[in-house]
Every structure is written in C-alpha cells, then in structure tokens.
Amino acid sequence: MNDQELLRYARHVLLNEVDIDGQERVLASRVLVLGCGGLGHAAAAYLAAAGVGTLYLADDDVVDETNLQRQILFAPAELGLPKAQVLAARLAQQNPDIGIVPLVERLDQARITALLAQCDVVLDCSDNFATRHAINRASLATCTPLVMGAATRFEGQLSVFDPRQADSPCYACLFDQGQADDGACALFGVFSPLVGMVGTAQAAEALKIIMGIGRSACGQLVLFNALEAGTQTWGLNKNAHCPVCGANHAS
What we know:
Strand order of the largest sheet: 3-2-1-4-5-6-7-8
Helix content: 25-40%
C-alpha cells in the first residue's frame, strides 16, 4: 500500500486481525454483487469503501419510484436509468481508486460461471429463486464462496455457502430447485432498514472471507427480525442427497 492508501484504510490496519496484510488482500480482491437493489446497495457501499480492488455490479433492472424507499443511493432524477450504472457511478465518487464494473444484463448460467471464475467471493443479492440457484451452481463449479442474503416484510436471512469446505451445504440443500418464486417485496413489502441490516452483514461476511479472519456463517442460517432485537441462528447440514452438491448428483 502507498501512503494515501495507508491513511484511507488506517482504521482497518489498526485492527490486529486485519493489519496491512488483510487490507492488501482486500485491495487485490475481485467481488461480484449480483443484484443492485436494497441488499446490493448496502453490501456494495461497504465493499467499495473497504477498498475491494474490483467490484462487479450486475443488474438488468432500472430505477423505479418504488425503489426509493429503501435503495438510498438512487435519486428521483435517475428514474428509468440502469441500476448497475447509477450505483457504479455513485460508488466511484466515494472511492475513485478501485475498479467498479457495471453489468447491465441478465446473467445466464454460463455468464455467471465465467464471472465467478475470476472472483474471490460472490454476493447473492438477487430476488428470485432461478437466479439464486444459478449462482449456487456456478459457486460450486468454480469453488467460489457464496454469501446469500434475502429480505421481505420484516424478516431477513443470511448464510454462507463455501464449496472450499467439504462439509459446507449449498443453497440447494436449503431450498428446493423446484420452489416457485413468491414475489417477495413486490407482493408483501419490505421494511426499509432491513435491507441495510442484511446487506451490511453480507459485506462483513465477504470481507472476512477475503481477509481470512473470524468465523464465517458457513453452516448457519442467520435470521433477522426487524420487529425484535437481535438475531437467531440455526445450524445447517450438508444434504447427502442434494441433487446439486450431494455425493450422487449429476455432474
């Protein structure tokens, strides 16, 4: 790190668990945030501020009036503009020294897999099961840690699926691939601070993975309830019969 970087990231460097080595890992890292809505907003903002070297922001949607209640980096003047481009521009103002790549496209399985092959970690901030399962398959194919977040109504979920660990479950161990999308926010609403709670927790998990510090949420499902204080944590086990990561899954 140069003198300017040492000053900018001084509060990380002062942490014994992080130090210069941990911050340099962040500066050299490549991260994909898939979904630039409320979760992606919060996660990407802290990843950019922390100095992630290359941050890919993927979303094919545009800014809508209903987004402004919780997607706090968008402004009314940006209605109709691509979310990924607007978010990338805003974060580039915050930290002009990192690479931020907006991807205004709906990523298919092959494209997600190709991107993950270049990344150290992927954050699933999407809002539909088909995309979530595609990310999960790509994570397994490329051995890339996956940080999953979800939020609807007043309830959120967080977990880490790390295929580098033999006993790690995958997303399909928890949610069946045939499960239908429920419409989430569009049908049931979402409490605006909740997406910040879950998204920042996703950023924390991603940074811990990159730095190699602490204990990740791998093998755990963390449940948020914005109507109550604190969180609940449930243990997750790998499903030996999982059609995606189980011993007898089709390759």
